[in-house]
Amino acid sequence: MGPRKNLRVRVVVLVVGCSLILSACTNTRNAPSLTNYSSTVDYGHVTSPSPAEQRATLAGTRAYRTLIVTSAQKFAAASSALLVAAQRGDRTAAKSDYLRAQEGFDAIRAQLNAVTPQPLSMDGRISDFPHWMPPAGLHAIEEDLWGTTGSRLVADAHALASIGAIMVFGLERSIATPNEYLTNAVRMLSWCIAQVIDDPQEQFSHLDLIDLTGTLGAVSAIVAGTVELGNLVNPHLTRTVVADMTQVQVTLRSLGNPAVTTDSQISNAQWRALVSAIDTLQSHLSELAGWLWGFGTGRTYA
C-alpha cells in the first residue's frame, strides 16, 4: 500500500476540560496522547435548564456511563479469554480475543485520557517503547500473535488480564457532562485520523480497521445518547451530526470486515473518503459540544 500521510483535510474541534477521577488507573509512561484544541464556538447554554433538558441531560450521562462500563467489561472479558486461549495454545482463538480486547479498549481510551495520557504499558505500539523498557500491553500481544515473539504470549496475556479487572473498577462510576463526553468523542475522531489512518497502530497484524471500528462505534453510541438533548437545544445541528455519523459508518463498513481486512487491501482513495467523512463529523460535533456547554449532572438534575 502506498503512503497514507497528509490525508487530513482540516480539523476544527472544541475541547473544554474534563473532570473524571480514575484513582484505579495509573500512568507509568506516556504514549502519544490525544491532542487538545482551542474552540471558536460560542458557549450555547447559559440559563437554567428546563425539566425536559434536565431529563435529557441525565439520559445522555447515563448512556455514556453505560458505554464506558460495558466497553471496559468487554476488554476485561476478552483479556481473560485471551489468557485461557494462550495457555491452551489456541492461537486462532487468541487472535480473535485480542481483536475484541483492542476494540473494547479503543472505546474507553479518551475517557482514560480525560485525566492522564494512557500508559505506554497498556496500548503503546512496540516502536514507541524505549530500548530499556520491555514491551507490554495489547501491542506486545499483537507482536506475539503476528510477529516473532510467540514464546512471551502467555506471560503477556497474563499481564493484560490483570489490568482488565482494575480497569472495570476504575471506570464503573464514570460521570461526564454532555460537553465533556462530546469533547471525548471529538478527541476520538482526531485520534482516528492522526494515530490510525496517518500513523497505523497495528504494526504486526495490519488490521487497523479494528481500531477504527471500536473507536467510531463508541462515537456513534455517544452521538445517539446526545440526540434527545441536542434536539432540544439545536435540532438542526443535531440532525446534521446524526447524518454525518451515518456517513462515517457507511464509509467505514465499505472498507471491509475489520477482523480480516488488512491495511494494504484498502486504497488511498478509500482512506481519504473516510478521513473526509470523519473530518466533517468532527467539525459539527465540536460545534454541538459548544452548544451543550453548561448542562451538568448536579443536584438540580436529580
Quick take:
With 302 residues, the chain is mainly alpha-helical. Helix content is 60%, strand content 0%.
Indicate the topology.
Blueprint lengths: L50 H37 L3 H23 L6 H4 L14 H9 L6 H19 L6 H20 L11 H25 L1 H19 L14 H24 L11
Helix pairs in contact: 1-2, 1-5, 1-7, 2-4, 2-7, 4-5, 6-7, 6-9, 7-8, 8-9
Distance between the termini: 53 Å
Query: And the CATH topology?
Result: A middle domain of Talin 1
Oligomer status: single chain
Beta-strand fraction estimate: under 5%
Low-confidence stretches: 5-45
Mean pLDDT: 84
Topology pattern, helix = H, strand = E: HHHHHHHHH
- Largest sheet entry: none
CATH superfamily: M75 peptidase, HXXE motif
How many strands in all?
A: 0
Quickly give the CATH architecture: Up-down Bundle
Structure classification: mainly alpha
Radius of gyration: 19 Å
CATH C-level class is Mainly Alpha
- What's the number of helices? 9
